[in-house]
Amino acid sequence: MEELSHWIDGKRVAGASGRFADVYNPATGEVQAKVPLASKAELDAAVASAAEAQVKWGATNPQRRARVLMEFVRLLNRDMDKLAETLSREHGKTVPDAKGDVQRGLEVVEFCIGAPHLLKGEYTDSAGPGIDMYSMRQPLGVAAGITPFNFPAMIPMWKMAPAIACGNAFILKPSERDPSVPLMLAELFSEAGLPDGVLQVVNGDKEAVDAILDNPTIAAIGFVGSTPIAEYIYGRGCSNGKRVQCFGGAKNHMIVMPDADMDQAADALVGAGYGAAGERCMAISVAVPVGDETADRLIEKLVPRIEKLKVGPYTSDGMDYGPLVTGAAKERVLGLVEKGIAEGAELVVDGRDFQLQGYEDGFFVGPHLFDRVTRDMAIYREEIFGPVLSTVRAQSYEDALAHAMDHEYGNGTAIFTRDGDTARDFASRINIGMVGINVPIPVPLAYHTFGGWKKSGFGDLNQHGPDAFRFYTRTKTVTARWPSGLKEGGEFHFKQMD
Ligand code: NAD
To answer: Ligand 1, residues 40, 91, 104, 175: which to mutate, most atoms within 8 A of Cβ?
Structure first.
């Protein structure tokens, strides 16, 4: 069985703690590799050598740093097939979806190639007599990223690319469920010319995460994962004086107005609800048709589409989605389905008996559709993170809006309507970070920023786009006066510069 490693100082390094986690092939249910779980001592050593490497990297001019990112993009495109295949084998998602995972990360790397422009400071000439004032953006030193299993290429790249472009060294602690692609990314960065030590991949679990939270050299932490862990990391990281941004779970509502194109809405819901087996933080998990007539029309359109979904391993072409990531994830999702039934929701499409010949031990879950879900039910309150779509019947637009507004999560949402007034009102009033108008998964592109509100996001700045350059730098402002601008005598008071 393959034994995975860490990536330290430009090479693969075996784990020294003696602790390992199993990495599954979710399609077959087999353990295909073991990943080492770093001790605090291993993490601290990786940080110490990253800090050393950062000194030279931080002093390298931003254009030279950007050239490394440019070459990294070329290598990502060269190795796209290999990356996607490895990703699918550990995560379970289809190969086209895995390519999308790499692609949406790559686009952020492309954006970060603009670092020389994005890092330019501000300058005020003659702020006072002979006085000039300027601000510059400097790297923080060593930053760390802790990432989830569901986008093992994209989210690590959303973190490492801006951090490195800004002149920091970066410690990545990827998900222990699918660590191979993050290791491959580090290898490609090294091939692209990144100096040893600037990017370290330390595999691990809570022990490594706690070591990151408590390491005094780490200046900033970017986290993506579930909300309970996001809250924990935000609290402990901030109290240790670090700059922290954490992105958590989601329960994304899609409101369907009576005037919506119902075929378009149903197609959108099926893709957004069941794509990647529902294991996306921007998946739509709640459909909110407005009015019973709309609800009946929508369900009628949805059912045949859902029943036609093709569920299978990434090795078969033409699948709509694959297995869940682990057996535990499968158990949890099926447990929530049972809870939904017990609490009185109507199971319109039942995927509980789904079986795939030859893959009986895989973590596949058939698609489920619930109707008449209400606010008090666990399937409404909790993030399911599986191929389960809930329908909540709203009596009016205001009722639909209130559902999305009152939910504790605030990552993404969408409205399907032909009415511009309603769409505009929705976008303006909703208390959710990313909004789609007739777009079910409104993931912002690399040059905008990505982030949720409420229990989906903690911290002041979003991911990627200009916010990433603010997060991974700090501002220093210099006030300069040269001897010709000096008046005789000292100055003892704050005063206006005139
Ligand atoms: P997770 O919270 O279980 O794990 C995320 C990371 O935290 C992993 O690296 C893991 O090793 C670490 N971790 C897990 N338990 C820990 C603990 N007790 N102490 C310290 N560290 C711990 O999340 P996941 O299951 O890998 O990913 C799915 C979740 O991520 C979903 O809730 C999903 O909505 C969310 N997500 C959010 C976004 C977003 O941008 N808001 C994007 C993708 C995924």
So the answer is: 175
pLDDT digits (tens, 9 = 90+) for 32-69: 999 999 999 999 999 999 999 999 999 999 999 999 99
For ligand 1, the distance from its centroid to the CA atom of residue 484, given in whole angstroms, is: 58
Q: What is the pTM of this model?
A: 0.96
Residue 15: other Cβ atoms inside 10 A: 21
How far away, in angstroms, is 274 Cα from ligand 1 center?
20
CA-CA-CA-CA torsion for 12, 186, 222, 170, nearest 10 degrees?
80
**Residues sharing a CB contact under 8 Å with residue 257, sequence separation 6 or more, in sequence order:** 290, 294, 397, 415, 416, 417, 418, 419, 422
Residue 290 has pLDDT above 90, yes or no: yes
Q: Is the pLDDT of residue 491 over 80?
A: no
Which CATH number is 252-437 given?
3.40.309.10
Q: Which residue has its alpha carbon closest to ligand 1 atom 26?
A: 148
How many residues are recorded in the chain? 498
Q: Edge-to-edge, what's the strand order for the sheet holding 473-481?
A: 122-128, 131-139, 473-481
**Does residue 39 have its Cβ closer than 6 Å to ligand 1?**
no
* pLDDT attached to residue 1: 87
Indicate if ligand 1 lies below 6 Å from the C-beta of 249. yes
Cβ contact 277:322 at 8 Å: yes
Asked if residue 434 has its Cβ within 6 Å of ligand 1, the reply is no
Residue 452: strand, helix, or coil: coil
The reply to whether CATH 3.40.605.10 applies to domain 2-248+465-478 is yes
DSSP 8-class letter at 443: P
Per-residue pLDDT reduced to its tens digit, 127-143: 999 999 999 999 999 99
The reply to whether ligand 1 has any atom less than 6 angstroms from the CB of 149 is: yes
**What are the boundaries of each domain within the chain?**
2-248+465-478, 252-437
Angstrom distance (rounded) from CA 82 to CA 479 = 52
